[in-house]
Amino acid sequence: MEPLLSLRTFLAEVEALGELREVRGAHWNLELGAIAELSYRSPQPKALLFSEIEGYPSGRVLTGSTGSARRLGLTLRLGDKHTDESLVEALRGKPSAWAAAARDFPVLPVTDAPLLANQVAGEINLLEFPVPRWHEHDGGRFIGTGCLVVTSDPETGVHNGGCYRMEVQDEGRSVTIAAVPGKHGAQHIDAWFARHGRAPVTISFGHDPLLLALGGTEVPLGVSELEYAGAVAGERVPVVIAPDTGLPIPAGSELAIEGWLRPGRLLEEGPFGEWTGYYSGSRRPDLAMEITRLYHRDDPILLGAPPGRPPHDYSYMRTVMKSAMIHDELVATGVPGIRKAWAHEAGGGRLFVGVAIEQRYAGHARQVGHLAAQLPAAAYMNRYVVVVDDDIDPADLDQLIWAVSTRTDPAEDIEIQRRTRGSRLDPMLPEGATPYNSRAVIDACRPWERLRSFPRVAESDPAYLAEVRARWGEVLG
């Protein structure tokens, strides 16, 4: 029986939905990444399982795990019959409920798991597995794209699971971990360095993509992603306790390592094609892991989630999750009239957010725009927030741009927030600069004082259009 959060269980379910394709014989150097990229850009992208990878008699790579409403609904345990919009609606309210319930699902230590079939201590070579070189100008082979990096708070012992880029180093003997400064994992590492001079880490490279979804999302500080995953799944997550570090590894993992980070152990890493759609700067030093043990199943599957110019591997997932979270957080502020929020995939699910409201009072649109730009779910590297009336669907870029084009006076309706939370991944950030950014709040609502007199939209009544479609549907296709 497969453990909870087994990638193989997920794959069997995705295959039953008809949303999995097997790709045999691709090369790990660029070809695998290019095939995945072409798939992401197709109208209905499938999950791709790469096998018989050139030069590797065993070992597989999965891409596109969460790239459709049905697969992401399955991942989040919300059902596999959703459309984009129904999935966001089904997700609303869930993140806060899962976070509140997480402590009721402590991890479940186990001593037996398929992961333990093969164990290596000492001479470790990660290049025995088909780690892709995803993009043409990547600085190396990145094994950490869909990974889960587990750290802990040295005072409380609470675990964190983060998804960070990881380049294979030192001919397979090490990896660099590009933990984003300020994120919970980086805070844990810094705290361990300050207290003990080294930081313990475990990393899973293949697992149910639920852990990818949670590792790349703002789970509240002090809440373990593994316990949060238990709340989502409705049962405790079984884990193997790594003997050297004492940290958990999901029992459903395909391939995992444990070891230590030390302040002075740095290796050059990057560049890498990132979720913004650009390579992130030049080659630079990052923390390199001292790997003490490696564990893997027979014929293990790496969970690949390479970013790049959207749409990329997890841009759809981030769009859905951020849209629901931003909507929930806006409603939680107590501001009335919130109708819909959408974090657009073209902006990586972070950079470009639309919000529709029913205007209730003068200044309402600006209030919502400024709040949305700084919500916990949206603050990291947000660039634009556009607020529109509720006759506009903020998920429809054509409608959103039409509202900006016809309901704004640029001199009056665009406001700028400065020195806000940016990222070193920002392609607009000069090398070495402090990672601030600015963001624009665009009020694309009809002016409050002209709501009654603003020109009427030239379109048919929606109810009448529905009647016509029902009558002439054969002609309209």
- Which bin fits the share of residues in helices? 25-40%
Name the poorly predicted regions.
none
Count of helical stretches: 13
The name of the CATH architecture of the domain at 315-450 is 3-Layer(aba) Sandwich
Q: What Rg do the Cα atoms give?
A: 23 Å
The structural class is: alpha+beta
- Would you tell me the overall average pLDDT? 95
The coarse silhouette is: globular
What distance separates the N and C termini?
47 Å
Q: How many beta-strand elements?
A: 23
CATH evolutionary superfamily of the domain at 315-450: UbiD C-terminal domain-like
| Largest sheet, strands/sense/barrel | 6 strands, antiparallel
β-sheet strand percentage = 15-25%
Report strand order across the widest sheet: 5-17-14-11-7-8
GO molecular function: lyase activity
Protein name: UbiD family decarboxylase
Domain 3-octaprenyl-4-hydroxybenzoate carboxy-lyase-like C-terminal: 316-444
Pfam families: UbiD, UbiD_C, UbiD_N
